[in-house]
Amino acid sequence: MVYVKRVWFSNGIHHHYSNDKFFPEISKDYFAKLIKQSVGAKFPIGKGESMAQFITRMTSYIFDPTVASKKISSDNTQDLIKLSASNFYDNVTEKEAEDFYYKFKVKDIRNHTPVSYGLNSKLVKENGEVKELTYKVGGLYSKPIEKIVFWLNKAKDVAENPAQKAHIEKLISFYQTGDLKTWDEYNVLWVKDVESAVDYVNGFIEVYGDPIGMKATWESVVNFKDVEATKRTEKISNNAQWFEDNSPVDSKFKKKEVKGVSAKVITVVQLGGDCYPSTPIGINLPNANWIRKDYGSKSVTMENITYAYDQAATGDGVLEEFCYSPEEINRAKKYGSLADNLHTDLHECLGHGSGQMLPGVSDDALKNYHSALEEARADLFALYYVMDPKMVEIGLIESLEVAKAQYDKYVRNGMMVQLTRIEFGKNIEQAHLRDRSLIAHWCFEKGAAENIIEKKVKDNKTYYIINDYQKLRVLFGQLLAEIQRIKSTGDYEAGKTLIEDYAVKVDSEIHKEVLSRYSKLNVAPYGGFVNPKLTLIEKGGKVTDVKIDYPGDYTKQMLEYSGKYSFLK
What we know:
46% of the residues lie in helices and 16% in strands. It is of the alpha+beta class. Strand 14 (533-539) and strand 15 form a beta hairpin.
């Protein structure tokens, strides 16, 4: 059982939540007893299913390690859907899912504006027939979607400007119809709106949770623009064409004309769905490559979130434990926060928005390896450019010491520190963890002859240090060029080889050592965020202010949300 010991708040305050209190082990019998004693509770009992059968089914999910053991399986030698514990498919094999969508993709093969088939639906097989259940009003998950529409209608009525009102109305239409062409029309309108101070992300967006990378989870973020901090990201977006032109990528995979790249720093107000309680630190949308090419993309760095992480990490001892030298520690403390924010800026604003697909290549050609490769592509773009003299020239950093701090952290994390998030003996499964492992281990291997990254042991502890930052930058550029080629051409086999060779397996001795060293710090490997509680202040029937409270109990907030807002009975 994983228990998050620390909870962060959006104003940067962190709270050591029940550090010494862990949930007791619960046996199958005790679990069954709890259910039987829960008189009046409404359980999701299946049609024709008895309570005893329900208890047996649920205990197998919770206690049997062979049942639904992985959220996402990456074992491509077997059926990825059957081995994954996702809720996107019911009684459907991987081949049946691919065959179902193939007929749509064939029609779209020469279409410049293909829709993202399957993004907002569940695929099921009933009476031998495979069919979609679409998420929409009147469809699957109608009740919660009706509430989303209810609140979007409220937002539409107080929109800042006509552009914002137009994309909110289009989003409402999408939820009412489930039409993915309408979803694309919404995204085009949304990405064009760069004037609104208050903005949002809302919809079925990211496909990380689907083993074959087609179906999305729902997420929502409400935010407002940090005007002063956005001056930093505007320097990047204003030079987007320069960055694209000077990329180490083959010219045929570059955008000839970069359109509509906008970037801003935001303050997050509320998080929902797949962004709560664990949130991204940056976002770049929309995901459809043709929209990125024709209309651009909108990037955000969530600076109150990164600030909270930085504040929480102060004095936790991780730097002192895993940095090799005082010089490395001091550089991290002096430049680490800026380096992280710039990495996020470049990753989101330019990394995800860079490059282009060759005609006829599908967005999901890389299947189960897509997410990790896409994150690696964006990370490599950021790593390559954070060390570029252009960063000093346009006033983003005072010296390349900032870039060195980012390189140190990336190698340290990819080779060692992120292993604290993985159970001993397990492979790396999550896309972002795979991304960092791939980059660090590939560069370690390719730079071995010149000792660019060196493994050192001091006082029986392992460290990885960088001996030549400029040569490491060259390696980042080489790997970026290859991953862009893989994406642009849809080279599944080459992508598979990179991930399987460098991103999945874990050195058991290093893993054991890292877990032992990290455990002594008493630091949780993951953090969760508590949403602020917003109360409207009204006078004369008009809202005059908003009162903000910061709840101190994460469990209480979750139970409150479940009691008041859960429609998924």
